């Protein structure tokens, strides 16, 4: 729950008498004093979170593709979407070149796009641009961010029911005490963003409508990350807003409204700068079956301890497989994926 705080208190609790003995005076916990900008932001965020979302009679999922150009898996997504025209919408942010579409579901769905540079705030700008365009349709209730290397690993009905019939956002989030987590925090973010709330995540989210509105409405906290979470900061440190802005924002304001795990699978087991990419020879029924069966979310800390953090994936309180989508797949995997699609999506 969000509280609006007034000036900080420095009070002392009055002495009390218990059985004739004086009880030691205990200082009250000081309350953080908010700046004017924070007070305004808290009011807006509180109103967004406390105002029930208008329920659509025909709820849809917004599939938002963030890509530099071509979408190599359009034909696979076309198979996924077929027969469900009234239950989804597609939005495409192509930052370098406008793709030539081979699927009717993608034709005419490009939004105004700007250049995106990996690791910079332009990545977050593109995400917010996609959300703003998708929010124009009042029937869109869940907002899925996808890359050009993402593929579906369940059929449409499974994905639709999984996302529409729950009231949380599937946003990755964990506390990393190492140099690639807390080590990226800057004191310049104070007073608005405190270190205790700083979190790390994969950028590939699924947000419920209420949270999508919150992200597009935010200016104060977005600005802090734009200014003080970027590559090439003091001390030779790099901070990447797309990995920290959203998990930190929701840790501050609605930690119970997110799952802290993403519905998009990615393989970090090689412990490199980038996750594993799958080639044509990697794509087998067994691989895809394994992806659809995983029931535990895994994170790796970047400190010396290299801890492996695990948590069960819960859907409406029940343990369920975690993932609806997967990345990163090379374009060469398309034929194998299409050949296996009807088999692995029926798992």
UniProtKB/TrEMBL annotation:
Lineage: Eukaryota, Viridiplantae, Streptophyta, Embryophyta, Tracheophyta
Compartmental location: Membrane
Presence of keyword Cytoplasm: no
Main location: membrane
UniProt source species: Heracleum sosnowskyi
Name of one Pfam family that matches: Branch
Keyword hit for Membrane: yes
UniProt name for this protein: Xylosyltransferase
Sample GO molecular function, one term: glycosyltransferase activity
């Amino acid at each position: 729950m969000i509280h609006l705080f007034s000036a900080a208190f420095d009070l002392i609790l009055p002495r009390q008498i218990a059985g004739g003995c004086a009880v030691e005076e205990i200082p009250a916990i000081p309350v953080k004093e908010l700046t004017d900008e924070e007070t305004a932001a808290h009011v807006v965020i509180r109103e967004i979170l406390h105002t029930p979302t208008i329920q659509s009679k025909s709820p849809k999922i917004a599939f938002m593709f963030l890509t530099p150009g071509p979408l190599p898996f359009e034909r696979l997504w076309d198979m996924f979407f077929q027969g469900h025209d009234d239950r989804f919408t597609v939005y495409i942010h192509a930052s370098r070149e406008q793709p030539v579409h081979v699927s009717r579901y993608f034709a005419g769905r490009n939004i105004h796009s700007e250049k995106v540079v990996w690791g910079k705030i332009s990545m977050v700008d593109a995400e917010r641009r996609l959300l703003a365009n998708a929010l124009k349709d009042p029937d869109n209730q869940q907002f899925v961010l996808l890359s050009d290397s993402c593929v579906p690993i369940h059929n449409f009905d499974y994905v639709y029911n999984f996302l529409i019939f729950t009231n949380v956002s599937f946003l990755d989030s964990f506390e990393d005490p190492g140099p690639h987590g807390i080590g990226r925090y800057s004191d310049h973010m104070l007073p608005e963003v405190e270190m205790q709330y700083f979190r790390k995540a994969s950028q590939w989210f699924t947000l419920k409508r209420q949270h999508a509105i919150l992200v597009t409405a935010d200016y104060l906290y977005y600005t802090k990350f734009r200014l003080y979470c970027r590559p090439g900061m003091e001390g030779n440190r790099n901070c990447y807003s797309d990995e920290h802005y959203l998990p930190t924002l929701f840790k501050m304001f609605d930690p119970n409204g997110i799952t802290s795990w993403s519905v998009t699978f990615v393989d970090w087991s090689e412990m490199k700068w980038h996750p594993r990419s799958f080639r044509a020879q990697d794509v087998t029924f067994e691989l895809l079956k394994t992806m659809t069966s995983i029931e535990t979310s895994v994170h790796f800390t970047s400190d010396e301890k290299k801890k492996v953090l695990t948590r069960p994936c819960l859907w409406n309180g029940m343990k369920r497989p975690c993932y609806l989508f997967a990345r990163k797949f090379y374009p060469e995997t398309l034929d194998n994926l299409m050949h296996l699609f009807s088999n692995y999506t029926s798992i």
